[in-house]
């Protein structure tokens, strides 16, 4: 053949060795001049076209309406092969070279290879999973594929609460373990460790005959058997524990899992970063710890770790950095009389790389704190040192507008909802993602309660609120192809923001309290507001957009939202095009539901 057929790209990367041989023996190459018709409407689907170079447009039978464009590595027309005849015609926009795969060979593989046939499913989630699987086979770290099972669960030493400290210590020594689970009669579980025993006997002066139930820590943090070890790492990081109990699907104890086991598989040592943050005693020490976060992100992403997992872990680390800064800067007597909240992508837990500060402070109504403004200015300065630059719009605690008492915040939100103008809608959107990270977390009710009361089923205000989601055009041509400017394709305006703000609007309408967009989508699907397939496609599209943007940013353009479409492999261009069509359909449903007219 003049050109070798590359089977490393989706969907051909899931073929067996014999199927690859079958394809290469049957495939042919054809050359088409500009203006030639490759396939006419009504023609039988005798072969699959895979473009080697050149470009092809799909048009209506009369040639007046264009549906799509195809270029290098794109393929067509699968529906013609499956249905017997082509619905549209395909013509070359320039001199074009194509591989031709006979229909009988394609169908033989299609009907025997489930992964190959599933690639042509219209469900975005399934298609993205297949491409992700291929990438995982090449690059995914082993620990991400490892689940908590009997091969890594440690047998648990279990004792009753009445066992004396001396006997418990002897049992732990005999079994060479450093902890034991304590089973209480009410069904709850506690834990004792060597550290517990040491403190009880040496520091607290307990006698060796004291029952272990008197010193055990409970409740015990638990994870489920069958979950990913990566999730166990997130749990340990968030809860600041070194051991977790493993339970089955009935909630019964099956063993334990400890930090050394997870760290042995977790080459990026995120827990080490967590420990450095926790041990920081000065701002300078915290800065040194925070500076290693970007390296963690690079390592996770380059190892092919799932985007949502990366976001969860980094969101946890960000929270801990900000909480530690809060405790270092805010005088201790005031720390539990106020609540620091983050908003925007940080509030939603969807920011991977550090971004501008976007925060607010809720003060207890009875708090008197004359130095509050000075302290908040120092706090914003500290966040800047930690890599979080000031917000250009001044949405941060150094701005008195974003520091209010609980009752003041309640009244502010009611006023914003009533006015419903452009600026008030922007402020409401910011506050809708508020998430507590330090101080008294219960004070967040001062924001969440009036938001729910003011906006749930308030279609008049939501009509204005939803409009920003409809303001930016989806970067698709009238023919349904990707539309990219000189700088590239703006994935934030064209894809990420419409989903995030549209889902935010629907969540406020239904009184959904979650702030993370993925969790909002799941909740809206659970209550029947979103169809299951729509929810899956929106979630998968958002993950795709975030991953593409993150890869672009990690390549050196940290603040860029533009995607270089020409640099994407055909499989990802196809996914991007599909994802943007999901956004386009979603925006149409938003406009219809909230009665927004152009």
TrEMBL record:
Pfam families on file: CBS (PF00571), cNMP_binding (PF00027), DUF294 (PF03445), DUF294_C (PF10335)
Residue ranges constituting the Cyclic nucleotide-binding domain according to the UniProt record: 11-87
InterPro entries named in the record: CBS_dom, CBS_dom_sf, cNMP-bd_dom, cNMP-bd_dom_sf, DUF294_put_nucleoTrafse_sb-bd, GlnD_Uridyltrans_N, MgtE_transporter, RmlC-like_jellyroll
Alphabetical UniProt keywords: CBS domain
Residue intervals of the CBS domain: 216-273
CDD domains: CAP_ED, NT_GlnE_GlnD_like
PROSITE patterns: CBS, CNMP_BINDING_3
PANTHER family: MAGNESIUM TRANSPORTER MGTE
Protein name stated in the entry: Cyclic nucleotide-binding/CBS domain-containing protein
Originating organism: Salinivibrio costicola (Vibrio costicola)
């Amino acid at each position: 053949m003049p050109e070798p057929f590359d089977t490393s790209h989706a969907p051909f990367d899931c073929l067996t060795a014999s199927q690859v041989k079958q394809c290469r023996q049957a495939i042919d190459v054809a050359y088409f001049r500009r203006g030639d018709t490759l396939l006419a409407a009504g023609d039988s689907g005798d072969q699959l076209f895979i473009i080697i170079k050149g470009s092809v447009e799909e048009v209506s039978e009369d040639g007046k309406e264009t549906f799509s464009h195809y270029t290098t590595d794109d393929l067509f027309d699968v529906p013609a092969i499956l249905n017997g005849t082509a619905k549209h015609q395909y013509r070359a926009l320039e001199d074009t070279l194509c591989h031709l795969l006979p229909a009988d060979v394609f169908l033989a593989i299609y009907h025997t290879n489930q992964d190959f046939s599933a690639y042509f499913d219209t469900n975005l989630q399934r298609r993205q999973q297949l491409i992700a699987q291929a990438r995982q086979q090449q690059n995914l770290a082993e620990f991400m594929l490892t689940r908590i099972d009997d091969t890594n669960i440690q047998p648990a030493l279990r004792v009753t609460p009445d066992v004396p400290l001396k006997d418990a210590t002897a049992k732990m020594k005999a079994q060479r373990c450093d902890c034991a689970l304590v089973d209480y009669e009410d069904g709850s579980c506690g834990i004792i460790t060597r550290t517990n025993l040491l403190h009880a006997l040496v520091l607290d002066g307990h006698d060796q005959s004291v029952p272990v139930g008197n010193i055990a820590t409970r409740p015990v943090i638990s994870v489920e058997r069958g979950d990913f070890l990566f999730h166990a790492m997130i749990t340990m990081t968030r809860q600041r524990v070194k051991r977790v109990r493993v339970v089955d699907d009935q909630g019964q104890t099956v063993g334990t899992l400890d930090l050394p086991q997870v760290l042995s598989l977790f080459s990026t040592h995120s827990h080490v970063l967590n420990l450095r943050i926790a041990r920081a005693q000065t701002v300078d020490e915290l800065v040194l710890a925070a500076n290693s976060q970007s390296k963690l992100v690079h390592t996770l992403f380059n190892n092919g770790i799932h985007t949502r997992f990366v976001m969860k872990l980094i969101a946890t680390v960000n929270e801990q950095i900000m909480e530690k800064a809060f405790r270092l800067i805010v005088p201790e007597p005031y720390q539990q009389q106020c609540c620091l909240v983050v908003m925007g992508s940080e509030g939603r837990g969807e920011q991977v790389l550090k971004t501008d500060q976007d925060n607010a402070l809720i003060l207890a109504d009875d708090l008197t704190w004359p130095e509050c403004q000075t302290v908040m200015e120092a706090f914003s300065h500290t966040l800047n040192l930690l890599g979080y630059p000031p917000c250009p719009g001044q949405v941060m605690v150094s701005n008195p507008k974003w520091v209010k008492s609980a009752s003041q915040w309640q009244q502010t939100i009611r006023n914003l909802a009533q006015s419903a103008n452009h600026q008030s809608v922007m402020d409401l959107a910011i506050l809708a993602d508020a998430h507590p990270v330090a101080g008294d977390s219960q004070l967040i009710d001062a924001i969440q309660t009036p938001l729910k009361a003011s906006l749930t089923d308030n279609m008049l205000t939501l009509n204005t609120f939803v409009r920003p989601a409809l303001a930016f055009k989806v970067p698709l041509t009238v023919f349904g192809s990707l539309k990219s400017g000189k700088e590239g394709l703006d994935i934030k305006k064209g894809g990420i923001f419409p989903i995030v703000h549209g889902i935010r609007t629907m969540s406020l309408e239904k009184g959904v309290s979650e702030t993370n967009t993925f969790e909002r989508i799941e909740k809206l699907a659970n209550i029947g507001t979103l169809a299951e397939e729509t929810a899956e496609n929106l979630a998968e599209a958002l993950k795709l957009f975030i991953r593409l943007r993150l890869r672009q940013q990690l390549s050196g353009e940290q603040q860029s939202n533009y995607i270089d479409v020409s640099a994407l492999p055909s499989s990802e261009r196809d996914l991007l095009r599909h994802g943007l069509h999901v956004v386009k359909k979603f925006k149409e449903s938003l406009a219809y539901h909230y009665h927004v007219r152009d």
